[in-house]
Amino acid sequence: MVTLILAFMMQFTVSTRAGFVNYVQGSANVSVTQTVGDRSPIRTGDGAFLEVLLKPGSYLRLAGNTEVELDGVELPDMGVRVISGTVLIEAAGYDKRTPLTIGVGNLKGQIVADGIYLVSDGNVLVLDGKMLTSGSTTTYGKGWQLSQVDAFQAAKVGKRQPLPLELWSKRRSDEAARANFEVGSSLREEPNVKISSLFDVWLWSPGFGGFTYMPGYGFRSPYGRQYLAVRDIFVVGGLVLGRDHRPGSDTGPTDTTATATNPSPTPAPPAPRPAPPAPK
Q1: Would you tell me how many other CB atoms lie within 10 Å of the CB of residue 203?
Q2: How far is the CA of 194 from the CAs of 197, 205, 237, 242, 249, in angstroms?
């Protein structure tokens, strides 16, 4: 069963291009598995939740009655424009050289560190992370709220009650982290996976019903969840291991040949729970 699932699952990865709709709950003008293009509106109805993939490891999550556009879908020019409503960004892998641009109202800023960023009522609140604003070298960290209508404003925010979107985003992130472990455990048992194709990609999880992140090396999500990485699964002491010598195995010969890079076998029949077609 593991081999059947892996053979099917490995056909479905998403590139570093942003815009794949990974989850929809409630009404929206887009659907799951759709890839949204640059400057195309994404809208949600009352009470909805929606998740869009950004670069691997980063998620854009929308509450109900929200409209956004992706302002650039490929690194290094990747951004989000919030037209109305409430948005949360779980950001990973951005820095000053390759930031995620975020715009709301007259405010334009850059996410330059892993973290969690909330956009609501025309404000950007740094729940965790670091953000720059256009034309400034000042970095705003955890607890700072930024806005600009006529003039730029920055204020430190005290204790507050989390919004429903924040609570849902945390649960969703925890589920994605669990899915990473399930996918990683399956990969560990598969002898014919090409390791080079797994570094820092989105990988389909049948149990999760969506894509989860597969990092190349050690990774902890902005919510603090540890992920299995390709190095954790396939590499010990600098050696690329075959199935019989991957972590958790206690059988097999002593040879450490890199069997994980062998060509894939003849495609297996579809898994019982098929994944959607990969976006183009």
Answers
A1: 22
A2: 6, 18, 19, 11, 19
**Torsions phi, psi for 231 (to 5 deg):** -65, -40
Rounded Cα–Cα distance for residues 42 and 62 (Å): 9
Cβ atoms of residues 230 and 218 within 8 Å: no
Domain span(s) for CATH 2.60.120.1440 in the chain:
2-161
Question: Tokens 């998620």 correspond to what residue?
Answer: 59
Supply 89's token pair: 């960004």
Alpha-helix residue ranges (DSSP H) falling in the chain: 2-9, 164-188, 230-234
Assigned token pair, 142: 């955890």
Backbone angles phi, psi at 180, to 5 degrees: -60, -45
The topology under which CATH files domain 2-161 is Jelly Rolls (2.60.120)
Residue of 177, 208, 183, 182 whose CA lies nearest to 198: 183
Given a contact cutoff of 8 angstroms between Cβ atoms, the answer to whether 183 and 203 are in contact is yes
DSSP-derived pairing of the beta strands 100-104 and 77-84: parallel
Q: What is the rounded distance in angstroms from the CA atom of residue 21 to the CA atom of residue 217? A: 25
Q: Identify the segments of the chain with pLDDT beneath 50.
A: 1-9, 238-239, 242-275, 277, 279-280
Q: What does the pLDDT look like over 71-102, one tens digit per residue?
A: 989 878 899 999 999 999 999 999 999 999 99
Average pLDDT, the chain: 82
Whole-model pTM? 0.81
Query: pLDDT tens digits for 167-214?
Result: 999 999 999 999 999 998 888 777 667 777 788 999 999 889 999 999
Q: How far apart are CA 132 and CA 241, in angstroms?
A: 43
Report the 10 Å Cβ neighbour count for 153: 12
**C-alpha distances in angstroms, 71 versus 93, 174, 181?**
18, 27, 32
Please check whether residue 42 is in contact with residue 50, taking contact to mean a CB–CB distance below 8 angstroms.
yes
